[in-house]
TrEMBL record:
InterPro entries hit by this protein: TPR-like_helical_dom_sf (IPR011990), TPR_rpt (IPR019734), Ycf3 (IPR050498)
UniProt protein name: Uncharacterized protein
Taxonomy of the source species: Bacteria, Candidatus Falkowiibacteriota
Record keyword Ion transport present: no
Residue stretches of each TPR repeat: 65-98
Signal sequence segment: 1-18
Length: 164
């Protein structure tokens, strides 16, 4: 939840300042690069620019896991699943319970058709955060592909109940 608040605040800042001053303001710091990357994703849907900005932020601070999370999600949107996995593995090696990275990694595994690995990550997330409906939706998709129609239907019902 804290990450969502940080992202919302960052997006608000970017929209309020960088968007108005885009012609006069070029990113100079790691934070500027991160904010410009998020802005490029959210407002411009320019994943190439977002990737360039976030790579610059990573080059300035290679220990900032938030930057790797942003880049991993850019790779996920670009369907560069193996590159995304590298970033999510990096984050999870430092913080094994990172909900967002586990979910993103599960999505990568799903798209790479490694359904057992996706299911393992989704089960782990549910053990950590059993009240997030999206996790049940993704687990329902995985179970359906694996032929567990009863489990898929049960997860879909939980998803619907949480999101009602």
């Amino acid at each position: 939840m804290n990450k969502i608040v940080v992202i919302i605040v960052a997006l608000f800042f970017v929209q309020a300042s960088a968007q108005n001053n885009k012609k006069d303001f070029e990113p100079k710091t790691k934070t500027d690069h991160i904010l410009f990357a998020i802005s490029a994703i959210e407002h411009d849907s320019d994943l190439v620019a977002a990737l360039a900005y976030i790579n610059e932020a990573i080059s300035e601070d290679s220990n900032n896991y938030f930057s790797y999370a942003v880049r991993g999600n850019i790779y996920l949107l670009q369907k560069e699943y193996y590159l995304a996995l590298e970033d999510f593995f990096r984050i999870l090696s430092a913080n094994p319970d990172d909900f967002s990275s586990l979910l993103a990694r599960a999505k990568c595994w799903y798209y790479l058709k490694n359904y057992e690995a996706a299911l393992k990550d989704l089960d782990e997330i549910i053990g950590l955060e059993p009240f997030d409906g999206d996790v049940y939706l993704w687990r329902s998709k995985v179970k359906k592909v694996l032929g567990d129609n009863i489990g898929a239907e049960a997860d879909l019902k939980i998803y619907q109940k949480i999101n009602d």
